[in-house]
Amino acid sequence: MSGLRYKRVLLKLSGEALMGEQDYGIDSELVCNIAGHLREVTQLGVEVAIVVGGGNIFRGMQGIKLGIDRVTGDHMGMLATVINALALGSALQAEGVEVRVQTAIEMREVAEPFLVKRAQRHLEYQRVVIFGAGTGHPFFSTDTAAALRAAEIRAEALLMAKNGVDGVYTADPRSDASARLLPELSYEQLLELKVMDATATALARDVDMPIHIFNFASPDNIRRICCGETVGSVIRRDRDAG
Fold first, then answer.
1. Residue 224 carries which DSSP code?
2. End-to-end alpha-carbon separation of the chain, Å?
3. Distance CA 33, CA 40 (A)
4. Structural domain span for residue 208
5. Could you tell me if residue 122 is inside a domain?
């Protein structure tokens, strides 16, 4: 524990992080690999909570193209996140990790309803808590759900795992060869660059929570960040940003 930077973190995983090289759905081998890395993090003594997206199954905005109204489409997207939460929870259990899945939309037959005090108690007992169904309300992204849950459980940091991106750049590195990686920046800079949902960024800023944005190509980056290594980009207040 003495070598840890953070004792309690919330990890945001996109649905695409569970999809791997597939066009759709869940890559079971990849999910098992993620679970193995998360087990190693918990063995260090880190209390881990997770918010998972649902883009590998359904995005709320997809529904508009199908003639589905936004509210219904967003609820469908929330249900997709529950499928992912259950899949990841099952993989963690197979690794010998105690897990609890909590959902913002009540479905007691498959998961616990979200209760912040219960979630905090699970974390204190070294159980991984996976939050499904976003915030439970339409019009809010899972990035916002991650920032909200992180604040509610009093996480020390929000870890945003990105696919194929090493961190925050001055411009899109895929189209601009001069784009530079920013190892440290402020919340205001993050808002200007529009890298993350503005509501999520503002919430993290309001509770003074560091955000780490890093490449999920190597799941071991989670352990490295918790142990104090410099990985990707970290967002903090101006007084801390270099």
1. H
2. 27
3. 11
4. 8-236
5. yes
**Mapping DSSP to helix (H, G, I), strand (E, B) and coil, where does residue 9 land?**
strand
Q: What is each CA distance from 37 to 127, 201, 233, in whole angstroms?
A: 15, 27, 21
Q: Which are the contacts of 164, defined by CB distance < 8 A and separation ≥ 6?
A: 215, 217
Q: Is the pTM value of this prediction over 0.90?
A: yes
Helix H segments across the chain? 28-43, 62-65, 70-94, 116-124, 142-152, 187-193, 198-206, 221-226
Return the pLDDT at 2: 58
Residue 242 lies in a domain: no
Q: Counting Cβ atoms within 10 Å, is residue 208 exposed (0-12), middle (13-18) or buried (19+)?
A: exposed
Instruction: For the chain of 242 residues, list the mean pLDDT of each consecutive stretch of 10.
Output: 87 91 90 95 97 89 80 94 97 98 97 98 98 96 97 98 89 87 95 92 96 91 94 82 43
Q: Is residue 232 part of a domain?
A: yes
Predicted confidence at residue 219, as pLDDT, reads: 83
Q: How far apart are CA 198 and CA 219, in angstroms?
A: 26
Residue 226 maps to a domain: yes
Number of domains forming the structure of the chain: 1
Q: 207 Cβ partners below 8 Å, 6+ apart? A: 151
